[in-house]
């Protein structure tokens, strides 16, 4: 158990809809990262938050947004969903976000868009 | 983050050591070498990281070449539970990890 909790584990929704994925980081970790893993793209970094502030952006679509709340949990919002958004979405957390610190990943949310 | 090159797949026998290579010829002086693995149907899992010196932990050892242009992850005694995709990642900043395709490790009983 990594200590990172993601909910829900599975989500099935229709095209055009909006969903929210939730992540609770390890206790005390200030950095939260979101990743998308699809069969053809592999693991892609989407966005990072550090202590409530956006810190880095990766390959995140404009239809996607995220935030980190004062209690440090984070949510990833996906809107106007398309079939191609079907993927595993992982959240990771780390203590400080320095390059020599390890990241701990949750078990992921499997999103299926039909 | 600089790019790494790993073999697509490797096969080993159970209870034997496994050496997983990684080339990173464009590594900068401040890049840390991280290894993660992903077991089937699970999230990535941290394995080990280092900067210049060899590192050991309960999971594995990391051997770093003197010029730092390559490194090797060593699993001392592979078990079936070590079958996974292993990712070698260079990290110079605090941004998200850049995952490549990794090495698919197959363990034969």
Describe this structure in words.
- The complex is a heterodimer of chains A (114) and B (109).
- Chain A is an all-beta fold.
- In chain A, 0% of the residues lie in helices and 53% in strands.
- Chain A is built from no helices and eleven strands.
- In chain A, the strands form two sheets. In chain A, strands 2, 4, 5, 6, 9, 10 and 11 form a seven-stranded mixed beta sheet that branches.
- Chain A starts with a strand and ends with a strand.
- In chain B, a hairpin with a 4-residue loop joins strand 5 (55-56) and strand 6.
- Chain B is mainly β.
- Chain B has strands at 9-13, 18-23, 32-38, 45-50, 55-56, 61-64, 70-75, 84-91, 103-108.
- Classes of the chains: A mainly beta (114), B mainly beta (109).
- At the A-B interface, strand 4, strand 5 and strand 10 of A face strand 3 and strand 4 of B.
Number of helical elements of chain A = 0
Number of strands of chain B: 9
Q: Outline of chain B, from the CA principal axes?
A: globular
What's the N-to-C terminus distance of chain B?
Answer: 37 Å
- In terms of quaternary structure, the protein is heterodimer
Strand segment tally of chain A = 11
The H/E string of chain A reads: EEEEEEEEEEE
Largest interface between protein chains, with number of residues from each side: A-B, 30 and 25 residues
Q: What strand line-up does the widest sheet of chain B have?
A: 1-9-8-3-4
Radius of gyration of chain A: 13 Å
Low-confidence stretches of chain A: none
Global mean pLDDT of chain B: 94
- Secondary-structure element string of chain B: EEEEEEEEE
Mean pLDDT reading of chain A: 95
Give the structure's gist in a few sentences.
With 114 residues, chain A is mainly β.
Provide the descriptors you would attach to this structure in a database record.
heterodimer; A: 114 residues; mainly beta; 4-stranded antiparallel β-sheet; globular; B: 109 residues; 5-stranded mixed β-sheet; 9 strands
């Amino acid at each position: 158990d990594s200590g990172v909790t993601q909910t829900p584990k599975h989500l099935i929704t229709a095209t055009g809809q909006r969903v929210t994925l939730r992540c609770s980081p390890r206790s005390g970790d200030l950095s939260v990262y979101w990743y998308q893993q699809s069969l053809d793209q592999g693991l892609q970094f989407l966005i990072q938050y550090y202590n409530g502030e956006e810190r880095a952006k990766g390959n995140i679509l404009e239809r996607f947004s995220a935030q980190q709340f004062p209690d440090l949990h984070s949510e990833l919002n996906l809107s106007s969903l398309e079939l191609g958004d079907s993927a595993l979405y992982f959240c990771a957390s780390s203590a400080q976000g320095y390059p020599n610190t390890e990241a701990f990943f949750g078990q992921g949310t499997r999103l299926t868009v039909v | 983050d600089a790019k790494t090159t790993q073999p697509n797949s490797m096969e080993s026998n159970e209870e034997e050591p496994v050496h997983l290579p990684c080339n990173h010829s464009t590594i900068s002086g401040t890049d840390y070498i991280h290894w993660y693995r992903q077991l089937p149907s699970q999230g990535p899992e941290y394995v080990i990281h280092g900067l210049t010196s060899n590192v050991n932990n309960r999971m594995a050892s990391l051997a770093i070449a003197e010029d730092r242009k390559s490194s090797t992850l060593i699993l001392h005694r592979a078990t079936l539970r070590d079958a996974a995709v292993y990712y070698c990642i260079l990290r110079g900043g605090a941004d998200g990890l850049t995952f490549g395709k990794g090495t698919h490790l197959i363990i034969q009983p």
